[in-house]
Amino acid sequence: MSQSFDKSPAEQLLTPVQFLKGVGPQRAEMLARLGLYKARDVLFFFPRDYQDLSETREISELEEGVPASIVGTVEEIDLRNTAPGRSIVGVLFRQAGQYLRAVWFNQPFMRDKFKQGDRVLLSGTVKKSGMRWEMAHPRVEIIADEDEEPAGRVLPVYPLTEGINQGLMRRIVHGVVEQFAEAIDEVLPDEFLAAHGLLPIRVALPQIHAPTDVASLERARERFIYQELLVLQLALALRRQQLTRGRKSVALPATTKIDSRIRRIFPFELTDDQNSAIEDVVADMARDFPMNRLVQGEVGSGKTAVAVYAMLLAVAHGYQTALMAPTEVLARQHAGTFAKLLEDAKVRVALLTGSLTAAQRRKLLEDLAAGEIDLVVGTQAIVQSGVDFAKLGLVVIDEQHRFGVEQRAKLRQAGVDPHYLVMTATPIPRTIGMTLFGDLDVSTIRQMPPGRQPVHSYLANHEQRDQWWEFFCKKLREGRQGYVVTPLVDESETVATANLQDAYEELANGPLEEFRLDLVHGRLSGEEKATVMDAFRHGETQVLVATSVVEVGVDVPNATLMTIEGGERFGLAQLHQLRGRISRGKHPGYVTVFADPQTESSKARLQAFVEHTDGFHLAEVDFSLRGPGDLLGTRQHGLPPLRVADLRTDTDQLEKARADARQLIADDPLLNNPLYTKLRRQVLIRYGKVLELGDVG
Hints:
Shape: globular
Number of strands: 21
Number of domains: 4
Low-confidence stretches: 630-636
CATH topology of the largest domain: Rossmann fold
Strand order of the largest sheet: 11-12-10-13-14-9-15
Mean pLDDT: 86
Radius of gyration: 31 Å
């Protein structure tokens, strides 16, 4: 269907795919499965890979042991069974009267991948087998019949769906690029493109879909990777601007007198990293706009001491402070820690959770509103309606990274925001930190307080169970305590609880029958969990059988043993968090993971866990194994996935985009310069809602 000349470029780009050349209603339904509905979607449906046919060799040019790519036509296909469950698939390829044989061992399904006459690109290492060249387990790509002679070309490889083959997808995309690429708006000003050495979008689009050569492809990819990261970094810089410079806070400086009074409260020397984080916090809280800082540190590295310093700084100025924890167990633990630490100070501490009686809650809220409470610890209950503070100066958020504008608005008083401090014990890979937490300033605590004992980590199989339980019992008899952690088998808590119950029964009537055991899991009420945890903390229970509910913040220094069942079901960060539960005291810790890994990635993850105890190193390993998907937690944080950039490999581009975004916002806080109108619009369309950039829009 030809485009009508009275349509604007923007309207042309909204042409439904069924009206595109070579599509029609039936194929439109297939393309919808790939998220392609309009011409614009197809333009930005980037290849997942490329077939580089520009470097293909002739069979006569092959060298033994040297990797090579060749294009050949399938001549013969055979499958031989060599023994029960063992086979060889052999495919003979012809190229201008010469032959090469490709072989696959124990992969009988490869026979069905080819048919006689297929033209195929093979890549691999060759060796001589008699008079003929042979390639074992090569990487193969079928070259569609519709593709012209491929020599000297780089072919795009697109994600596909049933009914659409590679040749058809290439033709559809090629037609759309020819017809609509000129309708795409350039969002970056000419001077900006020139200064950054970037291709204009109307040049880059054809090159990313049908590159002239590898160099042109790299320049086109560079343009789109940079733009995608710049848009994200601008969104984060705008949010950062909105949450700090655009707001008013009370300045809470740390005088020498206040500093020495606070430091006297700690019964230990602070580490250099803790002091450095405190310096960052002090500088932030002395300003008249809100602190918005993330303190990240290893489990047990002493982040809480930094939070206590910040809270006491607010209290010293006559302001109230609130700490929000993700679970009631953790909230109770924090409240207990503060009560003990501050028992000689005149700081009034209260605990606000869902399990208070109506009368207790009413009294607490009255005291809070009257300024009779200095420091309140709680869960999300703190931001519910009816919770009013007399003078709130600081909010500390533990392990809860996204704190929305709406939640903040509830804590504003007379147009003044409190300062915000976020803590996490999950070390964040650097590139993730620059994206997911790009709207926060970050302080990192790597040092562990002196006197912490090492944790010995082991990966075990079923045959080693008796040996491990023998050791576990020996340590319990010496007076230590331990955890047994079982995985959440599926989304159903009920199933997990049943599994936990089974594990509990087996242990209580088996290897741990002489010891006092108890159970804790997500289905218990807050009060029930608190009772179980208190008994464990006081040594009344020797072994706690639990789900990963103990992952965050449970602090029992005498618990130095941990058994993790079904280790392959846990993520690397989660395993490391669990291990952190047994590194709290003066005795060394021992953790053994029983696992049945089925994939190479799972094996690598478990191996990394037992070999490394540095959480920051493990975070980078996890990131390289799993990619950004799970770590970015798009379900939790709502950030749309990146289309072309890869946070594992595009670090330099990310650094550039971040620096440029911050400079642009420093020069023009709302990006109101008419030169950047289109870029600003793209930022708001992509990230405005999820990052709550309403004030900017």
